[in-house]
Please model this.
Amino acid sequence: MTLTNSNRIYLPAIALTVLVFVAGCTANRTTPSAQANPQPAQYNQTPPTTRMQPAPQEQPRIQQQPVAPPDNRFVEVEQVQKYLGNLRQIETDKQLLVNRVLAVDQAQQANRDDNRTAQERIEDAQNSSQSLAAEFNRLRTTTTNLYTPAACTDLAQKYIRHLANAEMNFRQMMDALTISHTNPNRALAIIKELREGQTHIQRQNDDAAAEQALSALCERYHIAKDFKVMH
Model:
């Protein structure tokens, strides 16, 4: 076919139109694999801005006070008070016993002119002596076996010495009463030693030491001193 000049002018335009149409059809066609596994669209997204949250405030904790152990000094004071209570009872019993010894002595002196024989008076004195000796022995045993806190050791030792002196004084007095019916001079010598001799001086010193130890212990623990160590 012979192209005219006018056809030569429109031919490039027609070719360009066909090319555009073919390209468009090709772009709209998709493969089966692409349809089965569509790929998500990719976006250039800016990550969201993270908002800083204020740190949670810690709740104040209640401080629980630990259970305090027993106050050792309080326990010690209780033990001292208990010991002093027992010692007070022993001292009271000792004074009652000493008064009984003096009563026996006075009775022997008052009955010196009765109708009893010397042997009868001696036997009476011996019986009284044995009864009182058993009481002194009980007091000594009770005092020795008494539970003694460490703070009371000094007082305990001095009081036991004081009690031993009181028992020895009692025994010598009863010996004097027993022999007064047969050997009055010897009996008087024993009584004089008890009242004026070295035994008397030593006994007074020991009694004073026990009384001072009692006062010092009560003062140290602020305990009311409600009895005395009697001579």
